[in-house]
Amino acid sequence: MSFFLHKANFLLRTVYPEFWWKVDDDTEPTIYLTFDDGPIPDVTEFVLEQLDKYAAQATFFCIGDNVRKHHDVFYYVIEAGHMIGNHTFNHLNGWKTEDELYLENIQLCQEQIGFDTGLFRPPYGRIKKSQAAALLDTHAVVMWDVLTGDFDQTLSPEVCLRKTLQYTEPGSIVVFHDSLKAWPTMRYVLPRTLAYFAERGYSFRAVPQPVYAGF
């Protein structure tokens, strides 16, 4: 079984206060849904269909190589009005990658995306302080408040849903995965999460672009 925290704890937020964990917005209860690792045919398209049912905006942190291979699906995400973030070209673990190679891989992803984005999420949530320092003038490093765990194939969809509903609150940045690995669980959890919070008056928005990056 994978070990992970469904809820980002105080210690993580304290060690990395410069990263984005939640979005402060007092106007109305809002959840910031994010999807990592796509675009993937069928899987990402299912996500788009579910979001459309609730007029929900989300942020897709894309793998550059997947954008290259599935550019038509990537176009569907953009056409639907969602936000795009950089997730490296090859899903690199920053802790295990030299800084120069890591930053080059981010740039390769940027080239595939084809337009500027000030949003970056490190794969696995693992990034060195030195790598982050090279990015923070132009990018927000977007982490999460709630990790659904849809990628954990030992976790039942029912438990994944229960934990996601339990920990999500106004301003939460919530991580799902539009990947083949997460697909069996995500397709159960996502529609029910959307329905649950929509019934309680929540809206769903994309993570905003950082103003200091010129957006």
Automatic annotation (TrEMBL):
<keyword id="KW-0479">Metal-binding</keyword>
<dbReference type="GO" id="GO:0016810">
    <property type="term" value="F:hydrolase activity, acting on carbon-nitrogen (but not peptide) bonds"/>
</dbReference>
<dbReference type="GO" id="GO:0016020">
    <property type="term" value="C:membrane"/>
</dbReference>
<dbReference type="GO" id="GO:0005975">
    <property type="term" value="P:carbohydrate metabolic process"/>
</dbReference>
<dbReference type="GO" id="GO:0046872">
    <property type="term" value="F:metal ion binding"/>
</dbReference>
<keyword id="KW-0378">Hydrolase</keyword>
<feature type="domain" description="NodB homology">
    <location>
        <begin position="29"/>
        <end position="205"/>
    </location>
</feature>
<dbReference type="InterPro" id="IPR050248">
    <property type="entry name" value="Polysacc_deacetylase_ArnD"/>
</dbReference>
<dbReference type="InterPro" id="IPR011330">
    <property type="entry name" value="Glyco_hydro/deAcase_b/a-brl"/>
</dbReference>
<dbReference type="Pfam" id="PF01522">
    <property type="entry name" value="Polysacc_deac_1"/>
</dbReference>
<protein>
    <submittedName>
        <fullName>Polysaccharide deacetylase</fullName>
    </submittedName>
</protein>
<dbReference type="InterPro" id="IPR002509">
    <property type="entry name" value="NODB_dom"/>
</dbReference>
